[in-house]
Amino acid sequence: MNFSNILIKWYLQNKRDLPWRNTTNPYPIWLSEIMLQQTRVAQGTPYFLSFTTAFPTVFDLAAASEEQVLKLWQGLGYYSRARNLHKTAQYVATELNGIFPDNYNDLLKLKGIGEYTAAAIASFSYNEAVPVVDGNVFRVLSRYFDIETDIAQASAKKEFATLAFELMPKDSQDRLKRSKYAPATFNQAIMEFGALQCVPKNPNCSICVFNESCAALQKKKVAHLPVKSKKIKVRNRYFNYIVANDDNENTLIQKRTLKGIWQNLYEFPLLETEKEEDFDFVSEQIQSEYFKENTISSILETNDKSIIHKLSHQHLHIKFWKVNVNGIIENGINQETLKTFPFPIVIHNFIEKELN
Length: 356
Prior knowledge:
Elements: H1 2-14, H2 26-35, H3 41-54, H4 58-63, H5 66-73, H6 80-95, H7 104-107, H8 115-126, H9 135-145, H10 154-167, H11 183-196, H12 215-218, E1 235-245, E2 254-255, E3 266-267, E4 270-273, H13 279-289, E5 296-301, E6 307-310, E7 314-325, H14 335-338, H15 345-354
Parallel strand pairs: 1-7
Antiparallel strand pairs: 1-4, 2-3, 5-7, 6-7
């Protein structure tokens, strides 16, 4: 089809030189796809390079501790991705002898691998003719063909996957791996086109290779596609972190073990409140609930305005409270040890800025 030929020609002329594109090895391809979920390429690339340096094979990743993995992941967010990544590496290393499944259906059985990631690995590593459907693909196809299906609906993915499969060039098996029109190239091309040319806001349609055939452009609907219903309501939460400091300049941290945000990462002792509270309320809570074995000499509010840390469905309003404690805190740790633990990025940034 003309659409596919034009798209692939554009890709071969404009594609970015990305480290995971120079291989068909499923391990780095899998790493990159997990990292780039909810993450821009510019942000994800340094993490990819750090991971492949620290863990050059799936066996190295499997042998690492979860804390090592979370520490390297620190700042990428959506930490369940890192935990699933580690568990899948252990499964592939121990149960599959380090060999990733070579087809879409078996890849789907691995923890943390959904339809999109399985399709990406199957096509990029093994040239399986299975379409990828991500936000870029939704956007390119909905605009080019003027599709008004709400992409937030569960049925949308199947509709767009069917269309993408129809557009995907199919080559004969004996020529598949050497053909520049292989499924892998088509999938890379449509995603790259959405990332670089058919961008979400204000795409430059005047230089687009499809500006004579794009239905949305002809109908002046580019800004209105794809259709996506509103997100669920964002929940506001109010976190007050207690940063203790004893006579040895040691502090306290705790591990978040419950399911939810930041599971298995570390944090300072936390006082969560229903709303943003003032100094008197928080200091009274700290005095009555914490450090009962020690006396508190002073409490300092380090940021009078909350740091707002935005997650997908939650906005965290965060304050840090420095609490100077007389004597020695039980289970306290020094600053050097503190920096070896994996923290949410907002706490890591505080440590780097305020505790150096």
